Amino acid sequence: MNRKKFLIFGGAITLIVIIVLAIALPLTLIKSNDDNISFKGSDVLDEVPLIDGHNDFPFNLYLLEQNRLKDVDFNSDLRLNPKWQVNRSFTDLPRMRQGKLGGQFWVAYVRCEHNYKDAAERTLEQIDVIKRLINKYPNDMMYVTEADQIMEAFNQKKVASMIEIEGGHSIDSRLSVLRLYYELGVRCMTLTHSCDLPWADSSPIDDNPSAVKKNLTDWGLKVVEEMNRLGMIIDLSHVSEGVMLAALEHSKAQVIFSHSSVYALQNHHRNVKNNVLLKVKEKNGLVMINFYSSFIGGNDTIDDVINHINYVRDLIGSEHVGIGGDYDGVTSVPKGLEDVSKYPDLFDKLAEEGHGYEPWSKDELKNLAGLNLIRVFKDVERIRDEMKNENIPAIPIPYDDIMNENPDAEKVWIIGGISFLVVVGVTLGIVLPLTVFKSNNDTFKGSDVLDEVPLIDGHNDLPYNLYAIERNRLNDFNFDSDLRLNPKWDSPSSFTDLPRIRQGKLGGQFWVAYVGCNRNYKDAAERTLEQIDVIKRLINKYPNDMMYVTEADQIMEAFNQKKVASMIEIEGGHSIDSRLSVLRLYYELGVRCMTLTHSCDLPWADSSPIDDNPNAVKKNLTDWGLKVVEEMNRLGMIIDLSHVSEGVMLAALEHSQAQVIFSHSSVYALQNHHRNVKDNVLLKVKEKNGLVMINFYSGFIGGSDTIDDVINHINYVRDLIGSEHVGIGGDYDGVDKVPKGLEDVSKYPDLFDKLAEEGHGYKPWSKDELKNLAGLNLIRVFKDVERIRDTLKDEKILDNPIPYDDIKNQNPDVGLLTKSRKMTKNKRIFAVTIIVVIIEVVSGVRLPLSVFQSQEDTFKGSDVLDEVPLIDTHNDLPWNLYRFEKNNLDEFDFDSDLRLNPKWDSPNSFTDLPRIRQGKLGGQFWVAYVSCNDNYKDAAERTLEQIDVIKRLINKYPNDMMYVTEADQIMEAFNQKKVASMIEIEGGHSIDSRLSVLRLYYELGVRCMTLTHSCDLPWADSSPIDDNPSAVKKNLTDWGLKVVEEMNRLGMIIDLSHVSEGVMLAALEHSKAQVIFSHSSVYALRNHHRNVKNNVLLKVKEKNGVVMINFYSSFIGGNNKIDDVINHINYVRDLIGSEHVGIGGDYDGVSAMPEGLEDVSKYPDLFDKLAEEGHGYKPWSKDELKNLAGLNLIRVFKDVERVRDNMKSEDILDDPIPYDDIMNQNPDAGLCRTDIENYKPQESSKSLLSMSYETAETF
């Protein structure tokens, strides 16, 4: 029994054990750590970004496309593109998506043969093309300069795109260049490529047992320190073993090998030995494995790459290995890793069992993918932040370092003297945003743009119909109804009501206060006031649909509220009754535009019918008529030239400071009616940056009287002067017939749709063009008018009465109607009072009569320098910093009298802070000048150094100087009692005939450039050519015009000092923006080729530019006194006006100054003397002196920014300079310009590639 119980009990225990084991054993197979759960390795690429440390696609863009992006579609399979069917093309967006690429260091690589020549220029081009590539694909790529941005990009499903420079030869042994690369977004640099540098050995030296190694010199260690201070990742791929160890020892931050493999597995000098790997672990750095077959060895399969990855993991840990495929930089990659689409296969295989190595866990794969690289990047930033207050050692690269490495370096480096000191300083650390440019518009309906920008019609006469039909009574008038159904409005000239306005997507309208010419000399003013009143009442009656607008910015406010922006225009200057006081009061009442005439001649202006009368005596625009233009400018009222004669058109376009419009006119060349605009006038409209708004009236359009005829007029203007200069001025309700297809205001969308469509025999309009046409052009003009108003706000109000003879000559009987202008004082006051009383009644505002003072109180001219900044546009102190201090600012005391410093005892030294304060200097363009001797050599590098020293100087004196890159900042600096400090480049040779370099100078803060210095360029002649009667002049070549266009697009001021007369005229013609001569004088007073002739001065006036007078004795002539400078200043004022002259002293750039202007402390004496009586010239008024001091320059700067903003959607120009242009200028250019072959017309891309592959190892 006991035995039975025992068996039962034992059996139960056994059963329990079996059950427990049955449960427990499977559980033991389930590991508690998630990393050991079976998974696909590539799944981690959905959780963290895969970051590849090295891709040379940008170099293939150079080899295959010459850096032109227009014809390369990165969003296509490039294997199908014959040009890209080469053995080193592995990358495009479709394969990147397939490969789950999350981050990439795109490499700005130039070959070692550029060393000591044009490496810096070529590197800038590669940086530029990388940025343009990123900009072109904003939905797929994101520009990244900070570690945290990598995850931002990944979360947006974009490839985090960083820039790396491959090879320290790109900095040309200049720390200033390194700093400026950082400003341009570079975040990583390999210390060398495959060539030794004066300060570092490259890896091939390790295969040469007899080589004398310098490893990393003392100056090379300074490069490491400066990269640490900047926050730039140090990359040790390509360097020698000695350099690896020295950099690992010396760097404060973690380092990487961006594309290297393991020496123990493949003994190639480019790979990393075990002793170095162990040091990498100590430094917490990272080795990113290269896929190139020659560096991997083995059987040339994916397994060999895995062997290298595993080796690093097993020796120093998974925290120290990453991916650096070297795609597009090599000619052969292993089977299984054929292109960038194959990364997932690598990760899958690393995670799999059964391959003879421990499978990688999720966490390990995340590290490998990208977390290791992000860790390094963040550590580099941490060190940067810790070092932000550290003193920067001003250690030059020793002369012997350079000459020992390359005895011929001096020939191309322009060292001069016994050493070349490299600048060290504090950069601004500004991260400049990328501007996004879109090269192509998607297919769209043209009318869709009317949902994005307001359609603004320049002219609608509904208010006159309100008078004619309703007698201006609105009580019974229902504008929110179809007026076609209202018998009272059954009129051939009625086309407008709110339902049709909504259907037509009308966003803005100038409503016209028109009275007939038969009111002239009678009650035109009173009747005009009535029309202003009815317009305002109409707007008030429909507040949900219409918004009263008097400022340009209010147009978009109205549009965003889905209301019609409603502006008031007067049609015909007869409405002001030849009285400026009435014009001013109209402005107070909200009028923002006026046609100078209607169809009747005025005492001060001719109307268009006169042009059809060959016997007519034309007065065009009289002197008093010019005063009307000036007063409209001062008030901020748009000048409208519809209805005026051709002579008045031209005179107003010449005289107005602000842009102008034709609110409802068409093209004379298509319909020769006196109301239309001739081609010569259209070209002047372009010069003025004005606007012609096409009229729809059948009588002005001609043709078959259909919508197509209106389109012909619109296209004509676009094709002749550009889409920026055409708009819509339908003239609805002011005419009795409009074309078929444009029957009323509901039809605007049909017009825009048709303009955008293909197949009509003209180039379809793009979205941006249609936006301009719709309303952006008008808004631009309106804003420019306001800008001029604001600049003229301190101008004296004009109170000049119209001359008696002007009135009597126009209409001898006028006295019968006006009680005679030749009246007593009391009677004239009575007449003005009557008008004022009428305006008071209409507006409900008590308007005081203005008191005008004809004479200004006596003042000292220099007093204006306390009210506006004195801006000198040219000072060469930075060049003296190079000459006397070798750009070393440590011991330089700018806040001392440099006349007492023996080092600065030079006839070229005129500037220091004490004398700047005494001279009341408020703004200065500091010049980054390098000699023409640097042309074709190291001009770009030297220019970068000069930019750097200017920035460091400004940084060193923050209480006295303020870095300025925008026009509005000038007044900010002035109000803070600081010198607004801008950077100018003197001489287009600094861009090395590369638009990419120009763009990057802009990013670095350059805001002005002289097109040449004293040497001719492949694309522009300099002024000395004008003294050579036998010279063959090219003036400004087609590519030179591209430089002008790109400067306009960037927002860089074009400076025409130093250029030839032909270049002056070409640039003045071609530039969309106003221009300057930063330091030039008058040829008529001193016939030197550097001075400006009268014909050019007149063109400067047309362009609304400025000539800044140079003080240099040789350019001034005379008795070498202050009076001679005054003669030049007065000459410009007298010939073209005080709005076109300024100060460009050229201090520190010349060796002799006139008596009385010995240095920068003397500006006040100049201004005092200009204002004084008794010197034989008309004393300068306060307003004139303010213009001279700085307001003229600020006006130009703002106009340049305006043009920049208008061009923001234009394609970036990437046209290379033609090969013949270069070689015709300098047949030896190829000796220093190492990419000269790339400028030749290529028979095929393969010939260039074969040449490149023969001369380059991997890159």
From TrEMBL:
GO CC, one annotated term: side of membrane
Q: Which cofactor does it need?
A: Zn(2+)
Family of this protein: Belongs to the metallo-dependent hydrolases superfamily. Peptidase M19 family.
Q: Which GO terms describe its biological process?
A: proteolysis
Q: Please list the reactions this protein catalyses.
A: an L-aminoacyl-L-amino acid + H2O = 2 an L-alpha-amino acid
- EC number(s) per entry: 3.4.13.19
Write down a Pfam family by its short name: Peptidase_M19
The uppermost taxa in this organism's lineage are: Eukaryota, Metazoa, Ecdysozoa, Arthropoda, Hexapoda
Which regions span the lipid bilayer? 7-30, 412-437, 829-849
Query: What are the UniProt keywords, alphabetically?
Result: Dipeptidase, Disulfide bond, Glycoprotein, GPI-anchor, Hydrolase, Lipoprotein, Membrane, Metal-binding, Metalloprotease, Protease, Transmembrane, Transmembrane helix, Zinc
Q: Where in the cell is it found?
A: Membrane
* Subcellular location, principal: membrane
Q: What is this protein called?
A: Dipeptidase
Q: How does it assemble?
A: Homodimer; disulfide-linked.
Please give, as recorded in its UniProt entry, the membrane topology of this protein.
Lipid-anchor; GPI-anchor
PANTHER family assigned: DIPEPTIDASE, MICROSOMAL DIPEPTIDASE
- Xref: InterPro entries: Dipep_AS, Metal_Hydrolase, Pept_M19
List the Gene Ontology MF annotations in alphabetical order. metal ion binding; metallodipeptidase activity
Question: Gene name?
Answer: similar to Dipeptidase 1
